[in-house]
Amino acid sequence: MSGSPKYSSVRIGVLYAQREATERRRRAEERRARERKRAAQRAQLAARRADLARRDAESAARREAERDAQRARARAEQSRADERGLDEVRALIEEAQRSGARADVSPLEEQLAALRGRVARGEQLGDAVERLRGRVVGLRPAAADSAADDPASVLAGLERGFAATGPDGAALDADGHRRCTGLLDQLRAAAGPDRQVRFDALLGTVEHALARHAATVTEARAAAERHTRAEQEREARQQEQEQEREAAERQRAEAAAAAQEQALAEAAERLDVVRPAARAVVETAAELGDPGLADEIGDALRTATEELTARSAAEALTAVSDLEHRLPDAERRLDELELAYRRSRDLVAALRDAMTGEGFAFEGGEDEGGSFRLHFTRPTGATYETTVGVEDDGTPVLVYRVEGEPDVTLHAARDEPVCDTTEALLERVHEALGGDDGFVPGELTWDGKPPGRRAKPLPRESSWRWSAP
Length: 469
Prior knowledge:
Blueprint: E1 6-12, H1 14-98, H2 106-120, H3 128-145, H4 151-163, H5 169-172, H6 174-189, H7 196-287, H8 291-309, H9 313-357, E2 361-367, E3 372-377, E4 383-390, E5 396-403, H10 421-431, E6 439-441, E7 445-446, E8 454-457, E9 464-467
Antiparallel strand pairs: 1-5, 1-6, 1-7, 2-3, 3-4, 4-5, 8-9
């Protein structure tokens, strides 16, 4: 037997394996219960967020409905004010007609009807009512004076009517304006006391010309007003459309901001659900010697936290979802680590009892996170350092490093029988590890062990001898 480390894989006894399987099933049910609880918490939080979102939407809809109602009330009140103004204008036209006005009021009545149509369509009239009122009021003095027979008074009334067409009359109806100016000059010349017949003959022509001029100017103004109104309506529509676009953009921005806040709140709440379990996995995996598992869950937890701190809503939700997805399997792997750790602890206890039963003195040991290192001495002064570890497939393994035994030979001649009481001693230790109710070590081996070597016992109190097959 060389002085190299000696190895022995350990099989779990039948009864021990049954107890471990029972514990594994219990832990699996606990994991399922924890995951159901976390799922219920997530569902409860989602329901609460949905209820808050519904309430926010209802509040926003109520506020928008109130704003619409206010705008509708304002439009209705303005329409009623426009209707009252048009009624007053109608009364003024009727008063002018009753007073015997010579001017033709039909263009004014047509414009009045057009304005009523606009009100009926819900349009706002602005200052159109007041402009129409001013034109009707301009007829009243002429109407009042027309009842007098005095040529001077009649002429003054006609001149006031002509002036009432406004300073833009000459531009709107240049021919009519020149004709009316000339006729009024002729009528003025015929206003003398001895020219009544001439005055009366010209009066009808002048009145007709003035009425025609007034109608032409009124129609020109109406056309200009229609054009102006069309431009104003077009600008108003453009302004309204721009306002609607701005409002829509604000609503989209507000909705996006609200959605981001909701997503961040969701990510934070969901992270709060899994954070304690994730931290427990990281800490326990590090303690049990699985840095890969600790790093995997630690990195996922750190990513979710950093994305939340950066207020990256979509990335935060993705990171939290990834952590939620990894956690169940991580807890399963952690349970296997804990079972393996318990198995190693039980093997340590059994090995310590077995070795002290063979006369070894236990000098202490270290828990190295997934493996244990134990120190023993014999009365002869020999030291045994025993490591209880786990292979990649989870199988326990014992590793012995022996110093100071006289039968430990570093270099033996080929095919030379070697008496090795160390091997026999360790095999007696292995026999005491519990069997089916504990642990069953396999063949003790080391680098350079001859193939087929098997130790055979001599009398119990003497030694062991080795024979080749």
